Amino acid sequence: MKEIIFYYDVVCPFAYMASRLVEGVAARAGARVKWTPVLLGGLYEATDAPQGKHGSASSVMAPAKKAIVGADLQTQLQRYRIPLNYPASHPQRTLNAMRLLAISPAGRAASGDQRQAALDNS
Fold first, then answer.
1. Side-chain half-sphere of 84: how many Cα atoms within 13 Å?
2. What's the rounded Cα separation, in Å, for the pair 63 and 65?
3. Cα(53)–Cα(108) distance, integer angstroms
4. Which CA distances in Å does 63 have to 29, 58, 70?
5. Whose CA is closest to 113, among 12, 31, 35?
6. Distance between CA atoms of 120 and 112, rounded to whole angstroms?
7. Which pairs with CB-CB distance under 8 Å and at least 24 residues apart come from 76-85?
8. Dist. CA 37–CA 101, nearest whole Å
9. Helix, strand, or coil (residue 8)
10. What values do phi and psi take at 30, rounded to 5?
11. Is 84 exposed, middle or buried (0-12, 13-18, 19+ CB in 10 A)?
């Protein structure tokens, strides 16, 4: 069977949006999804990409770029009718949660629906 490897960080709104769509894409392609957690902060660090105080790339973007990226996110969320509500404390440190997902066989094997239910109930 074909496989889509879906890399995600739970703090990333673009990964959240894609996580709501990837299972449908896989079904249409006759594939299964392999959910693979990745630490964006680690990728930023490994590539010397600029990061802000809380590890967010958006906090060091030029104001015009930040506005364009934010508008694009909102456009895509509306296009796909995906709700997004940031917690009051966004961005949150998710390193421990991501480490748990990375080492947990249950976390790697959970379906998109199970992951979504966990996110919705947290």
1. 23
2. 6
3. 29
4. 38, 9, 10
5. 35
6. 12
7. 76/17, 77/17, 80/17, 80/20, 80/21, 82/16, 82/17, 82/20, 82/21, 84/13, 84/16, 84/17
8. 7
9. strand
10. 65, 40
11. exposed
More confident residue, 48 or 15: 15
Q: Which H helix or E strand runs over 33?
A: strand 31-37
- Specify the amino acid at residue 95: L
pLDDT digits (tens, 9 = 90+) for 58-98: 778 889 998 999 999 999 999 999 999 888 877 777 888 88
- Tens of pLDDT, residues 29-53: 999 999 988 888 778 778 777 776 6
- Tell me which amino acid residue 52 is: G
Determine the Cα–Cα distance for residues 100 and 86; give it in Å rounded to an integer: 22
Mean pLDDT of the region 5-11: 89
Name the pTM for this structure. Answer: 0.74
Structural contact between residues 44 and 74, judged by C-beta atoms closer than 8 angstroms:
no
CB contact at 8 A, 32 and 3: yes
